[in-house]
Specification:
The complex is a heterodimer.
Chain A (H helix, E strand, L loop, with lengths): L2 H34 L7 H19 L2 H24 L5 H20 L12 E3 L7 H6 L1 E3 L1 H18 L1 H11 L1 H6 L4 H24 L14 H11 L4 H23 L6 H5 L1 H13 L18
Chain B lengths: L1 H27 L4 H14 L1 H26 L7 H18 L6 H29 L3 H21 L33 H18 L1 H11 L1 H6 L4 H28 L10 H11 L4 H25 L5 H20 L3 H6 L8 H7 L1
Helix pairs in contact in B: 1-2, 1-13, 2-3, 2-12, 3-7, 3-10, 3-11, 3-12, 4-5, 4-6, 4-10, 4-11, 5-6, 5-10, 7-8, 7-12, 8-10, 11-12, 11-13, 12-13
Chain lengths: 306, 359
Amino acid sequence: MTADQWIALVAGIVGGALRVGAPFLFVSLGECLTEKSGRINLGLEGVLVLSAMAAFGGAYLTDSAWLGVLIGAAAGAVLALLHGLLCSLDRVNDVATGIALMLLGTGLAFYLGKPLIQPQAPQLPAIPLGFWSDNTVVQSALQVNALVPVGIVLAGLMYWGFARTRAGLLVRMAGDSANATRALGYSVSGIRVAATTAGGFIAGLGGASLTLFYPGSWNEGISSGQGLIAVALVIFARWSPLRCVGAAFLFGGAGAIGPALQSIGVGWGYHLFNTVPYVLTLVILVLTCKPGSVAIGSPGELSSTR
Amino acid sequence: MRNALKEIALPAFAIAAALLVFGVLVWFAGVSPVDVWVTLFKGAFGDWFSWQNTLQRAAPLMLTALCVAIPARAGLVIIGGEGAVVLGGLACAALPYAIPLPGNIVGTVAICFAGAVVGALWIMLAGWLRQYRGINETISSLLLAYIAIGIFKHLVEGALRDPASLNKPSTRSLPDGLGIGGIAGSDVHWGLVIGIVACVGLGLWLRATASGFSIRVVGGNPRTAQLVGLPATQLILAACGVGGACAGVAGAVEVAAVHTNANASIIAGYGYAGILVSFIARHNPIAIIPVAILFGGFGAAGSLLQRRLGLPDASVLVLQGIAFVLILASEGLRMIDWKTLLKNRMPRAVQPKLVKEST
């Protein structure tokens, strides 16, 4: 390979990490908040697809990308609220409900999104992080989604919120001990429904970044399991919002390997390279999980780790 | 008998409610709900033609639902059946080109067996990861499904591709005599019989044999299983293997009876629909049969909804999603003790149940 090709490959992977990582960032932050409250939301996959569609449709109808972002996040919050309410019923398992909402969210998105496959919606502005380079390949690779800084700030806020605020403490308490929460007179269900809904709102921002930035269109294959990878990502990040940021970009980079190789003319194994994020997730789970013991930092009430 | 009636009444009520909600949704889209219900029924069970279509779709659903139900009885939530379906189908299509097979029933059994083995190994991997590495099997099985689809596409577009398949990458067609044909001249293939036999057989196995009972004990109460010294890990791996084998056969049947080769059409979401079927059947293999026929019917009616009423092809997905959500919710409502709830509501913090837990 020539030097230019190496530069293009590295720029493609780094740029891809920032681009592909953006949805991972939001979904994992949303899942982090949900899991901190002691509930798991596998339905975030459905939330991601539905909010991606809603954001695109919203941006198309209102002619404003930022209104689209809000509409997408709101759609995500509504679906997550449904998850929260269903899980509050007795004998309703949060894993089963998550699977149901995954199917429902995807179905609704495909159903309502049919007319949106053709049109073009206004896009989110790009932040040119590649301004320091003369190389046009580097410049175009480092066009960063304007939502990325929002996500990083949000991660910081969540970190601070969990550590320092009353609401953050309540969420953590509901996640660690439902009985202690009840004993102090708080409603466990109430806290969890609120945390799940807020988590859906945050994941909805991830959906918006799927359709309102490169490639910037709505289609039915827009998210294949990214919402689920986020569940594994949160385990990897040990339920810390700050570590979610690093994990999301690592996975973004892994997901960008296939397209980056293809852009420099390596066509072999395209589909195999596309499975890298899933393989990486499994490998990381193998390395970080231990049989018979609960991961450090895991909320005590979480059904998936018990 | 009264109990059985109660078991059926609640899901039936939930499905009726789902049809109602779906009706409201299409009404917003400007389509008459009554037309939709009538079309759904006609497309699914209206005449012999639609019955054939329905039963043909029900066959793989039965097998993929078993891939959820059997591990579920051992306490595992496996949702990656789609991976076993595609790899099972691929193994079935590839085997006759790896070793020469007789072009008769023996060869057909051999290719289905290949699908079963590959499917079993794939789902057992998720069970193995759970037992030996402590990884949540729900997440790992789904990740494995995406990996399986990647491997499938890589091989079908690469090493196993038939050079003659230009626009749609496919493997070479099965040699003559290896395909699965229709039952007595109908369009319904023998896969339906395989599905029904598997459901009944595994239902009896769970109910009437010692190993089936052990699996239910492991799933129902892991601590009891430990106390009585059941080999939990082996039983869990066996349950995963049996379930995966069923999903693998589903893929093999799709190849041998429907497509005659492996191509992207077998990634049709049967694995995911099977999750829904299994949950509605409450992981009971016998109950899977009618539920799979019902959802096969919804699937068969989907294209009619699209053609007759101009609804998007994803409408059926929405109906399935609503049905799933409402059935889960009805589970939650079933246990509510309405009488006590209305008579004496106690404040949450001093519920007697909690006092007992904390002491």
